[in-house]
Design brief:
486 residues
Length: 486
């Protein structure tokens, strides 16, 4: 107002009041109104630190806007608008209390899409948030995670010393992934063990190759599906055609350690084994409306088949298992499955971020909801006890006169592969040392009687090989299949 001319009036101070000409009085009133409006605007903008104007927005967001304004205007350090907004969205999704719904930033969304469409660099394990913890659902076949000994239901406590407490599964994935050749250390708590252990894993490129086939004998083939990605059904067709040329007359379909993936792939593969028109899966929406998805039968429903499942079989693999069991009468062999009975989709935002959220329940052809229950096999078979042994930290030295659960695990491993430690109670005595030295000499390792580094890695590797050779579940599946082929 410094440049505005306002002194075009005559002032007389005779009776204790100001006398103004009519025109000047009107102009003064206008000025007062103008200044009042300006002061009000300033007060609203700066006095109450109002940053967001609600206007005609939905009233249920008033509290959210007020919180944003308060933090932006009064928090003791400068805030980042985008972080506050992302946090608000993330909190809204977390309030669903659904481990399968998640908000992903642009970087997280890009990482998520890569897991179902191409290769990625990381450790190769499916994880989820469960009861406030980050839990391994299943390691991918041949991945660094599998080679390091990670198993379904292992709880990941921290990544490189950084706690995962309160982290979403997407946030945990971003922390675990990294460039090929780099090392990441996971602190793992395995159910049934007392103390957590540190597991160093070297990241690698994880190809999304999801189907592996081989002939078990001259008539029976085994095909393992490790996940349901964009090309899995095509991979399976190619693999089955190759195996038929090799004489396949019966098939063991291995869905163990399969964490799931794309619904359309599960439906497509189920259609290869379920007669046309029979129900593969049912979807139930929020209003209770049920939609049935029938088999399109693009394969051979008469091929003798057995399906293997275990506690690492989840989601899409459970859809396939339930479909062949209930709509085609195909037996399931192994252990009870994981139990994930919901369907998710994603909505992408313009900035590249997205939300993944649950849109329906899925039900088996008979209308069963297996969520948190799993699917019981027709023939229950467990793997040998040594198949469930915990991981040993290769960087931790186990030597004579020490006692721990890790020593006990090492003793059980030695015994399982043919080296008698004398005892399996967790005390490292002279007899255990002799067994370790014998093991080291047989495998051309430094024979110092200490379980550490290369000795630990070799010990766990040979145990894994023995588990694969003495696969009691596969042997039972083949036995049942042969009976059906008679």
């Amino acid at each position: 107002m410094e440049n505005e001319k306002v002194e075009e009036h005559t002032v007389e101070n005779k009776s204790g009041y100001i006398r103004l000409k009519k025109f000047h009085f009107i102009m003064l009133l206008f000025l007062i109104v103008f200044l009042s409006a300006g002061i009000t605007a300033v007060a609203l903008s700066f006095g109450d630190e109002k940053v967001v104007t609600v206007g005609n927005e939905r009233s249920e967001f008033n509290k959210l806007y007020d919180t944003f304004d308060t933090l932006k205007g009064k928090y003791y350090t400068k805030t980042n608008d985008q972080k506050l907004i992302n946090g608000a969205i993330n909190g809204m999704v977390e309030a669903l209390d659904d481990p399968y719904s998640d908000y992903m930033t642009k970087e997280e969304a890009k990482s998520f899409h890569s897991t179902i469409s191409s290769s990625f660099e990381g450790i190769g394990a499916e994880i989820q948030e469960k009861d406030g913890h980050i839990v391994i659902v299943s390691p991918i076949k041949g991945s660094p995670a599998e080679k390091a000994g990670l198993k379904p239901n292992d709880i990941v406590l921290s990544v490189d010393g950084k706690s995962l407490q309160g982290k979403s599964s997407t946030q945990a994935v971003m922390m675990i992934r990294g460039k090929k050749g780099t090392k990441v250390e996971l602190s793992i708590k395995r159910p049934g063990t007392e103390n957590p252990i540190t597991v160093p894993i070297v990241r690698d490129e994880i190809p999304i190759e999801t189907v592996y086939g081989e002939m078990v004998d001259d008539k029976i083939a085994k095909v393992q599906i490790t996940s349901f990605s964009t090309n899995t059904s095509k991979e399976l067709v190619t693999t089955l055609n190759d195996l038929q040329k090799k004489g396949m007359k019966g098939l063991v379909l291995d869905l163990r350690q399969n964490p799931g993936g794309l619904l359309d792939q599960a439906v497509s593969i189920s259609s290869m084994f379920v007669p046309k028109g029979k129900v593969i899966v049912k979807e139930e929406d929020r209003d209770g409306k049920i939609t049935e998805i029938p088999s399109q039968n693009a394969g051979n429903p008469n091929l003798p088949l057995i399906v293997l499942i275990d506690k690492g079989s989840a989601s899409a693999s459970e859809i396939l298992a339930a479909a062949v069991k209930e709509s085609a009468g195909i037996p399931l062999v192994g252990e009870k499955s994981f139990g994930k009975g919901t369907v998710q989709t994603t909505t992408d935002f313009k900035d590249g971020s997205n939300i993944k959220y649950t849109i329906a329940k899925w039900l088996t052809p008979d209308g069963n909801w297996i969520h948190k229950k799993g699917i019981e096999p027709d023939v229950s078979v467990a793997l040998p006890d040594y198949a469930t042994l915990s991981i040993i930290d290769p960087e931790k030295a186990l030597s004579k006169s020490t006692a721990s659960t890790e020593v006990q695990t090492a003793q059980k491993m030695l015994k399982a592969i043919g080296y008698n430690p004398g005892r399996v109670d967790g005390f490292f005595d002279e007899k255990t040392k002799e067994a370790v030295i014998a093991f080291q000499k047989a495998n051309k390792l430094k024979a110092d009687g200490v379980v550490k580094g290369d000795t630990t890695i070799k010990l766990m590797g040979l145990l894994r090989e023995k588990i694969e050779k003495n696969d009691t579940q596969l042997k039972k599946a083949v036995e049942v299949l042969k009976e059906r082929m008679k």
